[in-house]
Amino acid sequence: MTDTFGQTHLGTRFMTALQRVFGFVAKVGFGLFLMVAALAALIATTFIGIMLAIAAIFLSLTRPRRNKRAPAPDTSQPLEARRTADGWVIEL
After folding, report:
1. Per residue of the chain (92 residues), what is the pLDDT tens digit?
2. Alpha helices of 1-92 — where are they, by DSSP H?
3. How far apart are CA 79 and CA 13, in angstroms?
4. Collapsing DSSP states into helix, strand and coil, what is residue 83?
5. How far apart are CA 38 and CA 28, in angstroms?
6. How far apart are the two ends of the chain, measured CA to CA in Å?
């Protein structure tokens, strides 16, 4: 009988090599996927930040100004004011 204890079959060595190669390719592929996902997240957050900044600029440009001239007071009825302990009180 031939002793094959110390020898491995060609098929076993081939399958082991194939598993190592595909294992390495899978790890590289997963690493590339993580890099692409991180890049996509970076681009998306940058785009959203720019959109928010543009919206804030437009909102600040289009809001009504609060320092408009006050309407002229109605001079038909004079206002009466009296001093109290808390300050002045205006009566109509």
Report:
1. 455 555 668 888 889 999 999 999 999 999 999 999 999 999 999 999 999 999 999 998 887 776 666 666 666 777 788 888 888 888 76
2. 10-62
3. 104
4. strand
5. 15
6. 124
Characterise 4 by phi-psi region: left (phi > 0), alpha (psi -120 to 50), beta (else): alpha
Q: Long-range CB contacts (< 8 A, 24+ apart) of 86-90?
A: none
The residue assigned the tokens 């109290």 is 84
Residue found by looking up tokens 């590289």 in the block: 28
Tokens of 74: 């109605």
Instruction: Dig out the tokens for 43 from the structure.
Output: 């681009």
Only one residue has tokens 């289009």, namely 62
> Would strands 87-91 and 80-84 be described as parallel, antiparallel, or unpaired?
antiparallel
